[in-house]
């Protein structure tokens, strides 16, 4: 009976990921870092079973491109500023509660809904810890043909 109840009382994978402290036990949680991330508009957390049945958490964080892009140069030839931008962060959660980086993608949308995707790396976690915008300047623009 206690085993069945403990499974029901275990925190959901997205809660474990939100409470993960990428900078160590003394650092802020991922949820806290995200809350003070420059230009954050909103965030959605979801979890699902990965290919091997392990819990996977996806964070979709929307950023205001004008705020997140402060300090970025003007878009280059053939590019224009995005109307909306997102950071998609995928994390795995082990049964023991360990959180691991899986992938990150930047998405920049036009006003009409077309988008360009930009593969990112674990550096987005370092940017969140440093309280700098996690999306690079290039991920805040869309190709002019979109």
Automatic annotation (TrEMBL):
It comes from Solidesulfovibrio aerotolerans. This is Uncharacterized protein. It comes from the Bacteria.
């Amino acid at each position: 009976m206690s085993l069945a109840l403990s499974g029901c009382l275990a925190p959901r994978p997205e809660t474990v990921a939100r409470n993960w402290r990428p900078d160590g036990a003394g650092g802020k949680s991922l949820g806290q870092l995200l809350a003070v991330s420059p230009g954050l508009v909103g965030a959605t957390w979801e979890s699902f079973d990965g290919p091997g049945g392990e819990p996977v958490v996806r964070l979709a964080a929307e950023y205001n491109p004008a705020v997140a892009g402060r300090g970025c140069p003007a878009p280059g030839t053939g590019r224009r500023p995005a109307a909306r931008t997102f950071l998609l962060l995928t994390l795995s959660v082990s049964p023991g509660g360990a959180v691991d980086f899986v992938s990150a993608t930047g998405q920049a949308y036009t006003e009409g809904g077309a988008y360009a995707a930009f593969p990112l790396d674990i550096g987005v976690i370092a940017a969140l810890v440093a309280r700098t915008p996690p999306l690079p300047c290039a991920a805040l623009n869309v190709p002019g043909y979109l």
